[in-house]
Amino acid sequence: MRRKVCRHCRGEFDLDSPRKRRVGGYINECPDCVEERGGDDSPPRYLGVQAGDGKMSGLTILAFESERDRAAYSAAWRSCTGAHKGKSSHLSPTNTPMTGLRFRKVGENRGNANHKGRADGSEED
Question: What average pLDDT does the segment 25-51 reach?
Answer without folding.
Answer: 77
